[in-house]
Amino acid sequence: AQSVTQLGSHVSVSEGALVLLRCNYSSSVPPYLFWYVQYPNQGLQLLLKYTSAATLVKGINGFEAEFKKSETSFHLTKPSAHMSDAAEYFCAVSLTGNQFYFGTGTSLTVIP
Amino acid sequence: KAGVTQTPRYLIKTRGQQVTLSCSPISGHRSVSWYQQTPGQGLQFLFEYFSETQRNKGNFPGRFSGRQFSNSRSEMNVSTLELGDSALYLCASSLAPRANGADTQYFGPGTRLTVL
Question: Could you say which of B48, B56, B90 has the minimum Cβ distance to residue A44?
Fold first, then answer.
């Protein structure tokens, strides 16, 4: 069973438009959740993480994500896209028992 | 504080050869995990080392192995390379083992391995 699902392998937005990248997890207990960004030919950089302290998590570069237990979702948003946001975004879930899974990634294109 | 470093950044090998990749974690981090990233399979977990002990291993053949030294630096080795081993190999370090859950993994830039 897929522990984390990212809907939409490719997302395109216009510069200045809202960015919404979707992530759903499957777990009976609230997991720890992460969003990472990967720029071309680079490693992964942590954008933000949810560790149960607050359901709305603010990250770097103006990104934020909201943990919704009822929807088992942790969608990533940014009010206004910038050209520099073009990258691959990965959602990851950490479960008990040393289980850590990455989603398949969403490639974000920003159209000028 | 310096980030995670990986060497070399790029490698070209031929089938049947073996390769060793190196990863130096952030100072003070004792956990090192390795991942393989390919367009078709995405990010797949290879193994994790903590305090020189392998704590967890992904579903990869025995050709993939690793080790960790007393200074937390880690190496991974792939023997008898196959075309399908071409990938970006990422190393990540953290203070605590992955089982900790909330601890953040910090990634290096990766080693791009091409097998011809």
Answer: B90
Output the pLDDT for position A42: 86
Q: How far is CA B105 from CA A43, B62, B94, in A?
A: 11, 25, 5
The rounded distance, in Å, linking the Cα atoms of B68 and B99 is: 18
In this structure, are strands A87-95 and A106-111 parallel, antiparallel, or unpaired?
antiparallel
Residue ranges of chain A with per-residue pLDDT less than 70: 1-2, 96-98
Tens digit of pLDDT for each residue in B104-114?
Answer: 889 999 999 99
Quick check: A112 and A82 in contact, CB under 8 A?
no
Q: What pLDDT, on the 0 to 100 scale, is given for residue B40?
A: 82
Query: What one-letter code names the amino acid at B116?
Result: L
Q: Report residue B100's pLDDT band, with 50, 70 and 90 as the boundaries.
A: low
Q: Which of A49, A98, A103 sits opposite B99 (nearest CB)?
A: A98
**CB-CB contact of A62 with A77 (8 Å):** no
Three-state secondary structure of B92-105: EEECCCHHHCCCCC
Q: What is the pLDDT of residues B7-59, one digit of tens each?
A: 999 999 999 999 999 999 999 999 999 999 998 888 999 999 999 999 888 89
Asked if B108 and A43 come within 8 Å (Cβ–Cβ), the reply is yes
DSSP letter at B26 equals: P
CA distance A27 to B2: 35
**CA-CA distance, A30 to B94, in Å (whole number)?**
21
